[in-house]
Write a structure and sequence with these properties.
The chain is of the alpha/beta class. It is built from 14 helices and 8 strands. The strands form 2 sheets. A 6-stranded mixed sheet has the order 1-2-5-8-6-7, with helices on one face. It has a two-stranded antiparallel sheet with strand order 3-4.
Length: about 300
C-alpha cells in the first residue's frame, strides 16, 4: 500500500487533492499506479503516474449493432499534474482533441492540462453549481464545527444531488455537452478525450448520455458511471488521511459524499431530464440539439 508522504503538504496542495486535482501526487506521495485496477469488466484503464487515476477508454460495451470501439473516445480526470512519461502515454492514444469541462476557478487553482505536442485543450466549462469554490472555503477554514455544519448530516450528498440537475437544465451546460458530442461525431481522424477535475460527475454524465446514445444498456452505462469509485478509491482515501494528518479536517470522511459518485446523483439528473423533456431521447434531440443524423454518425464511428 502506498504510504502518505512524509514531505509536509501545503494547504494549497491538500485542498487541491481533496478536490480531485491530483496535487497530492505532486506533493511527493507517489500515486498508487501499481495498485490501480487495469480493468473493471469491459473497462480499459489508462495507467498514468501523475495522479490522474480515472483515465479510461469508453469502449468495450455491447451496443446497438455491435460493441463500442476501443481507441475512439476517452474519459479522464484532470491532466494538470501528469508526468513527462504520462504525456508520452497520452501521445500514444492518437488523440486529436481534448475537451476540458472545468470552470475557470479550477483552472486557476490546478493549472492547465499537460498534453502531447500539437494538442491544446478545448475549454468547455460546465458549471459545478459552486461546489469547487465552496469546498475550497470550508476546508481552508479548518474549523471542525463549520465543516460539520456545511457537510454533515447528509448535506454534502444533498449538495451533490443539486449539482446534477444543472447538467440538464442549464442552457450553457447543455451547449458544452452538445458541442462535445458533435465533435465526436464529425471530428477528424483520431480519438477525443474529455474530462473535468475528478472525471466522475460532469465527465460521468457526458459518458452516460453518450453510451446510451450508442445503444449501450442502462445497466452497463450505470456501471461505467459507478466505476469512478473503484478507480478513485485509494487516491481519495489517501487524501482524506493527509487532511486529517495536517489538522485541516478533524473528520475528513465528511468529504466522502463529494468524492464518490452515487446512483442517487445520476438519478437527480435523469429526474430533471424527465421533468424537462419526458425522455432521454427528447433531451438529446431538443435539449442538446443532437439530431438523428448525428446519432447515426456517432454509432457509425463508435460501434462495430
Amino acid at each position: 500500500m502506498t504510504r502518505i508522504s512524509p514531505v509536509p503538504l501545503s494547504r494549497r496542495r491538500l485542498l487541491g487533492a481533496a478536490l480531485g486535482t491530483a496535487a497530492l501526487a505532486g506533493a511527493g506521495a507517489a500515486p498508487a499506479a501499481s495498485a490501480a485496477p487495469r480493468s473493471t469488466g469491459a473497462i480499459r484503464h489508462i495507467l498514468l503516474q501523475g495522479g490522474a487515476v480515472n483515465v479510461r477508454d469508453i469502449g468495450g460495451y455491447r451496443a446497438a449493432g455491435g460493441r463500442v470501439r476501443y481507441g475512439a473516445v476517452y474519459r479522464a480526470d484532470a491532466l494538470s499534474k501528469v508526468t513527462d512519461a504520462d504525456v508520452a502515454t497520452l501521445g500514444g492514444l492518437g488523440l486529436r482533441q481534448v475537451v476540458d469541462f472545468r470552470v475557470p476557478l479550477e483552472l486557476r487553482y490546478d493549472g492547465a492540462d499537460r498534453l502531447p505536442p500539437g494538442l491544446a485543450p478545448t475549454s468547455r466549462p460546465v458549471s459545478d453549481n459552486g461546489l469547487y469554490a465552496q469546498l475550497l472555503g470550508v476546508i481552508a477554514a479548518g474549523d471542525p464545527a463549520t465543516q460539520e455544519e456545511l457537510l454533515g448530516n447528509g448535506k454534502a450528498a444533498a449538495f451533490m444531488r443539486g449539482v446534477y440537475p444543472m447538467f440538464v437544465s442549464d442552457t450553457d451546460n447543455r451547449a458544452q455537452f452538445a458541442a462535445t458530442l458533435h465533435d465526436i461525431a464529425y471530428g477528424g481522424r483520431g480519438a477525443l478525450l474529455y474530462h473535468c477535475t475528478s472525471g466522475k460527475d460532469r465527465t460521468g454524465w457526458a459518458t452516460y448520455v453518450l453510451l446510451r446514445l450508442l445503444g449501450v444498456g442502462r445497466q452497463d452505462a450505470v456501471a461505467d458511471y459507478l466505476a469512478s469509485n473503484t478507480f478513485r478509491a485509494a487516491y481519495d482515501a489517501r487524501t482524506r488521511a493527509a487532511l486529517a494528518q495536517s489538522g485541516q479536517m478533524q473528520n475528513p470522511d465528511l468529504l466522502i459524499p463529494v468524492q464518490e459518485v452515487r446512483v442517487e446523483y445520476l438519478a437527480a439528473a435523469l429526474d430533471q431530464v424527465h421533468d424537462d423533456y419526458g425522455s432521454l431521447g427528447r433531451y438529446v434531440r431538443e435539449g442538446l440539439g443532437v439530431d438523428r443524423r448525428t446519432v447515426a454518425r456517432l454509432r457509425a464511428r463508435l460501434v462495430g
